[in-house]
Amino acid sequence: MDNKEISQNQNSKSKLFHPPWKYREGFTVALILMLAGFAIEVLTPQPGISIPSFPFNMYAGMAFITTIVFLHIFYRDIHMVRWLSTIPSAVSAICLIVLLTILMGVFEQERPDAGGIHGAIGLTHLKNAWVFLLAQLYLLVSLGLVILRRAVPLRKKNIGFLLNHLGLWIVIAGASLGTGDLHRLRMDIYEDEPVWYAYDSESRFYEMPFALELINFDIEEYPPQLAIVDSHTGRLTDDSQRPLPYIEAGKTTQLMEWTIHIDEFYPMALPDNGKVAYSEETGAPPYARVRAANNSTGETHEGWITCGSFMHDTRLLWLDGRNVLVMTLPEPRRYLSNVIAITPDDEPREMVIEVNKPPKVAGWRLYQLSYNQAMGKWSDVSVIEAVRDPWLPVVYTGIIMLFAGAVYIFWIGKEIKDEEQVTQL
């Protein structure tokens, strides 16, 4: 080969998008797609995109799969199509997805109307932005072509690979297409009042295929805590920023230069003829009788303190001209709603709705979301989140395939190793 031919080969390798394509072309494609997504986001009148609901999302998925199969059958010898089924293409697509996922954590999401350049290009609503759609399409095309290339001819050693990659493809595609059918609504339910409607984040109302009636709302609380507050700023003193001590009868603790002893504690109590007595009346707050002694001066103070409730005021204990001893509001340990679920076709049934233990009614999963926090344990309303995601089984199928692929690869790898050991013997 003469010097002229060597020079031509070196020049061809230095040119971008000159075969063979490698990682440089892959990351360039990813950059082009990212910039294109930002540009489309700026040029379109509405922020983000709306994934169609069933059956149109299913039609879109079938058309997309058909396109990938068509490319594999009729155009797999074209360099660009062949390159899309290589590692550089898949790695660059994954890196683009990872970058956008990191940006989701950097910028506050669910703000499609946010101003500024970051809002205009979709960084405040990335899950619905054009750039994320293009990144997903890039990854799905690359994965799809890889799967088809390894699937024919089908070999035993490729089964684990296919299960892993096909499972990942199904997870990404199912989660994306299912966005159009995902409904996340809120229901405010009350005692002795069946509620048949829910509303979304934009306060649009929807009639539900079931009704919920609140039997009672219950909260299990941690004990309240002691703290010293600066009356000039209304904030905890610097020395009270550490984990605050829980209030328990007979307990002695140290806050700043004060030694505090808790003589009595009632989780629910009310003043009665100058005394404090246990009470189960609505709105009865926790009470504690405390003694505080200054370690330096020997100064002492004692009295009853309470965090109060929606019906009763707080009571504090002044320690000096600036600092006061207070009881914090008890934090909820667990809260739940006992409800009656009513459907047109079935008998009413009682169920318990908790934060992370959602029962299922008429295809909807019900989560305990909130309550009237001003009223606390006596809340007269329970806020339930109703979630319907019919594509969730598709996503679960992909996850199971990923797990099965990992198990198969481990099993076949062990089998090959055993065969090699037998051969050596």
Write a structural description.
This protein has 425 residues and is α+β, with helices and mostly antiparallel strands. Helix content is 37%, strand content 27%. The strands form five sheets. It has a four-stranded antiparallel β-sheet with strand order 1-18-17-16, with no helix packed on it. The protein has a four-stranded antiparallel β-sheet with strand order 2-3-14-15, with no helix packed on it. Strands 5-4-13-12 form a four-stranded antiparallel β-sheet, with no helix packed on it. α2 (23-43) runs antiparallel to α7 (130-151), α5 (87-106) packs antiparallel against α7 and α8 runs antiparallel to α9. The two termini are 50 Å apart. It is built from nine helices and 18 strands. The chain has three domains: 23-152, no CATH class; 184-220 and 333-388, no CATH class; 224-325, no CATH class. Residues 4-8 and 420-425 have low confidence and may be disordered. A hairpin with a 2-residue loop joins β8 (269-272) and β9 (275-278).
Strand content: 25-35%
Q: Total strand count, please?
A: 18
Number of helices: 9
> How many domain regions?
3
Global shape: elongated
Order of strands across the widest beta sheet?
Answer: 1-18-17-16
Q: Structural class, judged by helices and strands?
A: alpha+beta
Instruction: Give a quick account of the main beta sheet: strands, pairing sense, barrel closure.
Output: 4 strands, antiparallel
The percent range for helix content is: 25-40%
Q: Cα distance, first to last residue?
A: 50 Å
* Contiguous uncertain segments of 5+ residues: 4-8, 420-425
Radius of gyration: 32 Å
Question: Whole-number average pLDDT?
Answer: 89
Please provide the ordered H/E string of secondary-structure elements.
HHHHHHHHEEEEEEEEEEEEEEEEEEH
